[in-house]
Structure formats: structure tokens, C-alpha cells
Write a structure and sequence with these properties.
mainly beta, about 120 residues
């Protein structure tokens, strides 16, 4: 499973960005996987942001993004999105997408990772 994240950039506080994560399946059934977004700010550990199941659209979010970020996916394109609204300077981080057969909010449950895309929110 290969993941390619994109969509990061520089935005002012209060602005929006949409991140994309394109997955190549190499023949695997992608509806088995749970797709997640994590982020890592400078000097901090990688933390969970949001996740979505391919099969039943169930989603989970970290408390600090509820009401601002929305995770979604396009099964036909094998792509997961993270729509980020009302961005804050503290949202500045490298955002990573991951794929998991287990799911949840822990890093160890995700066996596949994209390369990350940098989001910078200026005040």
C-alpha cells in the first residue's frame, strides 16, 4: 500500500485548506482499511487528527479539530480528504495520512504512511 499526501501550504489564521491522500492498492481490497490523518508539529510527537472507514463511513476526530476539520473519502479514486476550516496557528504541522486494518487513534495501529505535507498557519 502506497500513500501520497498533498494539499499543504501557507494559509492565514481563519483560512481553509484541503488535504488529499491518494492510495495505491497493489491489488488489495481497500475497503478493508481505515484511513487516518495525523500531524506532527516541530518538537512534538505525531498525534491523531481524524480517521474514516472505507466501508461504512464511520469517522472519529480528535477533540481539538471537532467542528473545524472534516474527513471524507472517494472510493472510486481511492482518495481520502481532510477539509480544514478555521485554521489556527497551532494547527501548523506536517500532516501525514496512514492506513490501518485496526483503526483507532494510536500510531501503532497504522502500518502504512504517506510522506507528509506541510501546513503552515500564520497569525
Amino acid at each position: 500500500v502506497q500513500l501520497q499526501a498533498s494539499g499543504g501550504g501557507l494559509v492565514q489564521a481563519g483560512g481553509s485548506l484541503r488535504l488529499s491522500c491518494a492510495a495505491s492498492t497493489s491489488g488489495r481490497t481497500f475497503t478493508r482499511y481505515i484511513m487516518g490523518w495525523f500531524r506532527q508539529a516541530p518538537g512534538k510527537e505525531r498525534e491523531f487528527v481524524a480517521a474514516i472507514k472505507w466501508s461504512d463511513y464511520n469517522t472519529i476526530y480528535a477533540d481539538f479539530v471537532k467542528g473545524r476539520f472534516t474527513i471524507s473519502r472517494d472510493n472510486a479514486k481511492n482518495t481520502v480528504y481532510l477539509q480544514m476550516n478555521s485554521l489556527k496557528p497551532e494547527d501548523t504541522a506536517v500532516y501525514y495520512c496512514g492506513a490501518s486494518l485496526i483503526g483507532g487513534t494510536g500510531l501503532l495501529g497504522y502500518g502504512y504512511w504517506g510522506q507528509g505535507t506541510l501546513v503552515t498557519v500564520s497569525s
